[in-house]
Structure formats: structure tokens, C-alpha cells
Amino acid sequence: MEKRLRLFPKSTEIHRVDNVGRLAIGGCDLTELAAEYGTPLYLYDQSALDAAVDEYRSSLAAHYPGAAGITYAGKALMNLAAARWAVGRGLWVDCTGAGELYIADRADVPRAQILVHGVNKSAADLQAAVAIAGTIVVDNLWELERLAALAGEVANFPDLWLRVRPGLAVDTHAFRQTGQDDSKFGMGFAEMVEAVALCRANGLPLTGVHFHQGSHFHDPQPIGPALERVLELLSELRDASGWTPAYLSPGGGWGVPYHEDDLPHPSIDDYVAFLSAKLAEGCAANDLPLPVLHVEPGRSIVAVAGVAIYRVGAIKRTVNRRWLLLDGGMADNIRPSLYGARYSALPVANPLRPALGPAWLGGPYCESGDVLIENLPMADVQPGELIAIPVSGAYHLMMSSNYNGALRPAVLWLRDGQARLIQRRETLADLIDRDL
Ligand SMILES: Cc1ncc(COP(=O)(O)O)c(C=O)c1O
């Protein structure tokens, strides 16, 4: 159980209230937060967010010989508070589509710090992108042609980066691979050559190249061959057209430990050190100028900072299982049902008491697949107790739904011992707000 505690933000402690140990994060008592805001409840510890950014920054400074920047992948968690925090930390913010662009704009993210992604950007996405963003990552030739058509109409046209598909996969769940030959994302090498020519013919401000191999990988090695391929392509493009990119982004995707079995986990520094060395060596080998290296992490910044709190309701014993049924599940965290993501958990009160035996933590929704955690050694938890699931900060709220009329949870931001409500819980009225 001690090991499990290491999955939580570093600021987590067990403090004693009425002689019972209780989990507190960032100086805030989780039992009190649950009483005040209800459950399911999500909270983000700013000190953990800051620590992840600091690690990226110091690693880039230590290992990469050129200039470097960080784009925060907003798809992992995007709301006004997260966008404002990212800007405050000097990050760029990656938005997918007009919706996230709207949030970034309302959060006053400066144009120069907004970067846009999207595999099939709609007309509305492209209009919003040219109006709001500083950089657009172009996914395909059809998009590039539509951007070329817009270029004449807009002053201050964003920089363009081209997204290349290196044709290699990283080791992660197939649903999270993006760089392989048959991926729907990005352009093959022949299309890249055409895209550079199209940009030049239309006088478009082409400044960078982007690739993203997939999400939640734990070994940086497979990035190496992908990067080598991209650099070979860039040297061919340089020979053919004289063009070299000022920026190169290898996307995001660095993984995090979700379960105590994932510990110890290689660090952000291991990843950045590998990437930096490979890029510097590859540029030297291909006689390419060092680009600005823009990493694009989402999960490795926000996942550990986020913790979900649920209340246990019914407890059932079936033939082979002890079921702890929670008041949240696949509607706020689809990851276990979507790709078998594995989580861990601790009771909020007396968290380190010994396990009684394995438990299955199920949600309240009408799907047999609505199980957040399977076969986890758990204490003798009773109905009414609170359970905290660590590493809940990335891709939960953003993929949440109103399935079975679920109300999306309240979200708190913890800083300096204070909890601030950054998103209220949805209400029943929200469920019919769009109905005509
Ligand atoms: C283009 C792009 N960049 C960055 C990311 C962020 O990945 P992660 O949250 O795993 O770091 C993703 C996620 O899939 C992505 O598609």
C-alpha cells in the first residue's frame, strides 16, 4: 500500500483527524472536499503540474544544445483554468479544433502560443485557426489547399508546420499508435514533398515539421528510428528545395505509471535526454541546422496531478468477486473500457490498512464493461467510504459523457493549501439545455 501512495502527487500526505489517518493533497483534506463538493470529484494539484513542467524545462536545457519549447497538449485536459495555468508557465497550448480554440481564446492565451492540430479540420476549425492561432499543424494536402485559399483573406496568417507520418509504430495500445504507415494521421513522404512545393508556390509561411508516434509509451527508443526517417526526409527536401524547418516537434506521448506494478517508471528526463541526443546527432549526420525542439506532452504533465474521488455504495459478493460499486465510472473515465487501462486506488480514510483481498471497482452505469479497476488488493472498505484513484488527470474529463444521465463531476484546483472550484458539477438542467 505504501508503494501505491507513490502514484499520488508528491504533496500527498496522511494526516490524523480524530486519530484516523486521512489522505490530504496539496494541504487539503480529501474527506472535507468530498463533503463540500460531493462525489465523483476531480482535483488537480498545481504543485504536481508545475513540477512536471520544471522537469521538462530543466531536461531540455541540460540535454538539447539548441533552443527548445514546450507545447502543452490540451486534449489531455482543457478548460479555462488549465489554459491560463499553461500560459502562466510560458507553455504553448495545443488545441484540436474550433472548440478547444474557443476555450484557449476565452482564456486569453496569446496568439503566438496557440498551436492547432486536427486530422480532418472542418471549415469552422480552419476559420478559427487562422483567426486565433499562431501555428497550424497541417495534416494533409486537402487541408493545405484550403489554407492556401484562405491565406489571401487574412492578415497575420499563422505559421504552418507539416505533420509527417514516419511509418513506424511505438509500443503502446493500437488505439494510441499514430505514426505507423496505415495511420489516419499526417502525410507520407511523397505528400510531404508536394506540401513543401505547394507552400512555396503560394508563399505560405512554412516553418516547421511535426510527427507524433503515439501516446503513453514508456521506452523512448522507438522514437529514434522515426526521428532518423524524418531527418532523412528533411535532408532530401533541403537538397531538392533548399527548405529546412526552423521548428521540429516530435509530438508528445511520454507515459506515466498508473499502477504500482508500473513502478519504477523511467523519468521525463530519460525521455528528453534520449530525444535531444538523437535529434542533435541526426542533424549533424544529415548536415541540417539544429531546429527549435518543441515537445508536446499532455499526459506526462497532467495525469499525476489529477486525482478522482468516489464514494462506495453497494458492496456485492458474487461467486468469485468482491464488488465495490462506486458513484462514478465509465462516464467520467472511459479509459478502462476503451483500451483496458489499469488503475489503482486507496481508501481515503486509513488508506494504508492491509488488503482484505482482491476487489473489482465497478461504476453505476448499465454496461458490464463499466469497471474502473479489476482484481486489485483492497482493504475491508465499507459502504459510504471514499476511494481515491490516482493518476486521473489526463483524458478522463475530456472524454467524459452523460451516459445514463450522468452529471459531469465538479473539478477543483489545489494550490497553497486552498481548493478552488474551477468547474461546477453539471446539473439536471444541463442535461436538457440543448434540447428544443
Ligand atoms: C498530436 C498530438 N500531440 C500530443 C499528444 C499528447 O500525447 P500525450 O498526452 O500522451 O503526451 C497527442 C495525443 O494523442 C497528439 O495526438
Proportion of β residues?
Answer: 15-25%
Examine the coordinates and then state which fold CATH places here, giving the name of the CATH topology of the largest domain.
TIM Barrel
Provide the low-confidence segments as ranges: none
Overall number of domains: 2
Helix/strand-derived class?
alpha/beta
CATH architecture of the largest domain: Alpha-Beta Barrel
Topology (elements, then pairings):
Layout: H1 2-5, E1 13-17, E2 20-25, E3 28-29, H2 30-37, E4 41-45, H3 46-63, E5 68-73, H4 80-88, E6 92-96, H5 97-106, E7 114-117, H6 123-132, E8 135-138, H7 141-151, E9 159-163, H8 189-201, E10 206-210, H9 223-241, E11 247-249, H10 268-285, E12 292-295, H11 299-302, E13 306-317, E14 322-326, H12 335-339, E15 346-347, E16 357-362, E17 371-378, E18 386-389, E19 410-415, E20 418-423, H13 428-431
Helix pairs in contact: 3-10, 5-6, 7-8, 9-10
This protein binds pyridoxal-5'-phosphate.
The site of pyridoxal-5'-phosphate has 17 residues, from helix 11.
Structure, explained:
The protein is of the alpha/beta class. It folds into two domains: 2-38 and 305-431, Lyase, Ornithine Decarboxylase, Chain A, domain 1, CATH 2.40.37; 47-299, Alanine racemase (TIM Barrel). The protein has 13 helices and 20 strands. Strands 4, 13, 14, 15, 16, 17, 18, 19 and 20 form a nine-stranded mixed β-sheet that branches. An eight-stranded parallel barrel has the order 5-6-7-8-9-10-11-12, surrounded by six helices. Helix 4 (80-88) links the parallel strand 5 (68-73) and strand 6. Helix 5 packs parallel to helix 6, helix 7 packs parallel to helix 8 (189-201) and helix 9 runs parallel beside helix 10 (268-285). The longest helix has 19 residues, at 223-241. The radius of gyration is 23 Å and the shape is globular. Bound molecules: pyridoxal-5'-phosphate. Pyridoxal-5'-phosphate (PLP) binds at residues 73, 75-76, 117, 212, 215-216, 251-254, 296-300, 394.
